Amino acid sequence: xxxxxxxxxxxxxxxxxxxxxxxxxxxxxxxxxxxxxxxxxxxxxxxxxxxxxxxxxxxxxxxxxxxxxxxxxxxxxxxxxxxxxxxxxxxxxxxxxxxxxxxxxxxxxxxxxxxxxxxxxxxxxxxxxxxxxxxxxxxxxxxxxxxxxxxxxxxxxxxxxxxxxxxxxxxxxxxxxxxxxxxxxxxxxxxxxxxxxxxxxxxxxxxxxxxxxxxxxxxxxxxxxxxxxxxxxxxxxxxxxxxxxxxxxxxxxxxxxxxxxxxxxxxxxxxxxxxxxxxxxxxxxxxxxxxxxxxxxxxxxxxxxxxxxxxxxxxxxxxxxxxxxxxxxxxxxxxxxxxxxxxxxxxxxxxxxxxxxxxxxxxxxxxxxxxxxxxxxxxxxxxxxxxxxxxxxxxxxxxxxxxxxxxxxxxxxxxxxxxxxxxxxxxxxxxxxxxxxxx
Length: 439
Hints:
two-stranded antiparallel sheet, 32% strand, alpha+beta, DUF1329
């Protein structure tokens, strides 16, 4: 016994010293604690839960009464099978695969009841310019100024342009989020990513001012994705410049820190997955982020689904499972169902989107491979801020064939005037390399 004590005590002393040192250096051996009394928590080692400010300006509807719940520790999800996309129903039905998920229904709050000025400004622009926009023979929008170009349309290509011009996030956007890339064995890799946008068209507020006019290159938008963590990805930057021209493909670059090189990407890379093992691709971010002219579109009608339309903002992670929506809020929405099929090189045969009928933001997307088998399912939980803009507080991208997912959690965002640094000069690769600390 004395021998054992003499052996263990020095180890305990050393271990205690290590704990003290780690405490002083603010290091940690474990992930953040779970939320009290919940089966989910916040497990990203790169960002402390206590350091998250949440959505800038908060969410507009934080205290919602739950009308009913289905799934984990609630009613049988079979009761609402017809109110969920089939792949999402299968996820809730099989917690042993995807993790425990609960569907909480709250009251639907129409877009006209949202706070702030954004909805009213866009409605005025929609009515003022109604009848002006049209689709040319190449499928490109012409004579578009601002607002929703084709409200209440049942034409597929017109609905696609409603989706990409709605400016639901404002005219310039900066956000930071974590991703949790999880395989079927429960192993998870985390990353911290910043995503920024700047649009030249569809301006509602005039905040961009005369500095960005004229636009001789006919840019439509800029998008930059920069990695802050982990270390092996830090400083990686995919960058896209998009043109307001159906004949001119995007300009795309990727900065690779370990090579200290910028590599030009071709437009055929639009369906490559983003660095970090992510499940989403450049054109499928937020269900669709491509050029409408690269796809064929078809309106499939309407379908009432439980969707994250005006959900309270909640950051939730399931530890060790690939599901990403443990305990979110949903509302009944008569969604617009829209199908697109690629005309460019693409690993999918088609995708089906479920959109908001007023603002055209996407709730869900189903992707089918070349054999017409469901291969991927995406979902977005939207929260409304006090200005009437929306934010995808949680995004789930799942590879249903390999049981693999990328869960995305936005924990801070800036829009319009609050995104002071987001301007055209921000989207130059030389500037971005310094901004993200590329080696």
